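User: Hey, my collaborator sent me this sequence without any context and asked if I could get a structure. I don't really work with proteins. Can you help?
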Amino acid sequence: MSAATPHLLELKGVHTHIGAYHILHGVDLAVPKGQLTMLLGRNGAGKTTTLRTIMGLWQASQGSIHFAGRDITRLHTPQIAGLNIAYVPENMGIFADLTVRENMLLAARQARSAAQMDEARLQWIFGLFPAVQKFWNHPAGKLSGGQKQMLAVSRAIVEPRELLIVDEPSKGLAPAIINNMIDAFDQLKQSGVTILLVEQNIHFAKRLGDAVAVMDNGRVVHAGRMADLAADEALQQSLLGLSL
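Assistant: No problem. I've predicted the 3D structure and written it out in structure-token form, which is a compact way to encode the shape of the chain:
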């Protein structure tokens, strides 16, 4: 790990078994501090399993995971979340019967009531995602897919986080909402949050990514600058079977 590009998160030789299935086959992944790293790959490449293994939802059977220089490989999920890491799963994990406000309050660990939530931070989030403010007192289950995704990300950042991990934030969203999401992640990055994103939308990846890692068959098969991958159509074709 060089002093010039300190890695906030680093996976070395990570293997993950789920039951009888060997999903990750020695994943090496470095997430530079203060940057947005894209994790790309075809369906079934192991991207979601990598995120779940980082968060301790599935245990690595081999290898190591370090966050801010600390070995977190054997920590449990609540301990990992307590290190200022937020995770937005692909299914978003919204509590449908609770209001938007109640969903946000659950994630604000320092607050016992909505009045105790950081008002300046809430206003910043409302600026990123106006729908969260608009539907503040509505049941979260009544929101559209795009609005639920905005709530899921808002909930993850209701308190300052050092690392934000998000699984396919643009999945199923309309282009206008995707652009809104891109702007929000860009602002988050500018605020100093390190972000690791799994994404299938190549436009999204190209607009936002600083670094990129491409997975195939449970391994990272390419790592480098997103701009270099975006500029190299032959490499895109060989790694992803598509052009950006």
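In plain terms: The two ends are 30 Å apart (CA to CA). You can pass these tokens on to your collaborator as they are.
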